[in-house]
Amino acid sequence: MNCQPYPRPINMGLYGKKLARAYVPNQPYVGMVPLDEALRRGSLFPNLYQPYTKKGVKKK
């Protein structure tokens, strides 16, 4: 008698397969912005700040 709800684990076909790979380039340390500005921007590091804008609209 099989007490498991499925005959085999659902992820059985994933063994030995790569699911994802991250590419993280080197990011040089260039200092930090003041904390109040970092909270507004969402990043403490100026080289990581990349605001999302609508196409064709540049934010100052």
| Estimated structural class | little secondary structure
Distance between the termini: 68 Å
- The residue ranges in which pLDDT falls below 50 over 5 or more consecutive positions are none
Number of helices: 1
Q: Major beta sheet, specifics?
A: none
Quote the average pLDDT: 79
Shape: elongated
> SSE order, as H and E?
H
Rg measurement, Å = 23 Å
Percent helix, as a range, is: 10-25%
Strands, total number: 0
What share of residues are in beta strands? Answer: under 5%
Organism: Alkalithermobacter paradoxus
InterPro entries: Spore_coat_CotJA
Protein name: Spore coat associated protein CotJA
Question: How would you characterize the overall build of this protein?
Answer:
- With 60 residues, this protein is mostly loops.
- 12% of the residues lie in helices and 0% in strands.
- It has 1 helix and no strands.
- The longest helix is centred in the middle third of the chain and has 7 residues, at 35-41.
List the main descriptive attributes of the protein structure presented here:
single chain, little secondary structure
